Amino acid sequence: MTQSMSLSLRNRSLLTLDRRAVIVSILLSVGAIVLAVGIWRPDALGIKTASPPNISTPIASSAATASQETPDQLLVKLRSSGFEQSEVSHADGQFVLVVEVGKDFRNEEIALELKRADGSVIAEMSVPAGMPVQSQEVNLQAGQYTLSVINHAAWVCTITVQ
After folding, report:
1. Which CATH class is domain 62-161?
2. Domain limits, the chain
3. pTM for this entry
4. Residue 130, SS3?
């Protein structure tokens, strides 16, 4: 009788260990799936992560960058035939210039120049290969500006700042 009780207790402890192992395996699998799918976002939990280096030349002054307010955005789309809109406008002051690159260019780096109406270059901006979007904070006064692709002289977007 004691031998059968001993076997019964041993079987129960093995079943308990098996259940624990199954639960741990399930939890680890779910955790791996969540991380792989990208549902877990450290920034949502307040964990600071390293951001990729900004390879573009900053246009905004350090005082404007220190501002707590989020500036407006101006979206400019670049496609295989040039800029989707040849002319865009925005209010003067600080805003974020966002360049969205079409799928045709995602394998190459795109170099852009932002110029005043007199042709003087304000800044150069590059969209690294593999990145669909690049943005840069700008602080522009009223006037005409052009955003052009350096290797494609005909691809120009006129920005009217009012």
Report:
1. mainly beta
2. 2-45, 62-161
3. 0.56
4. coil
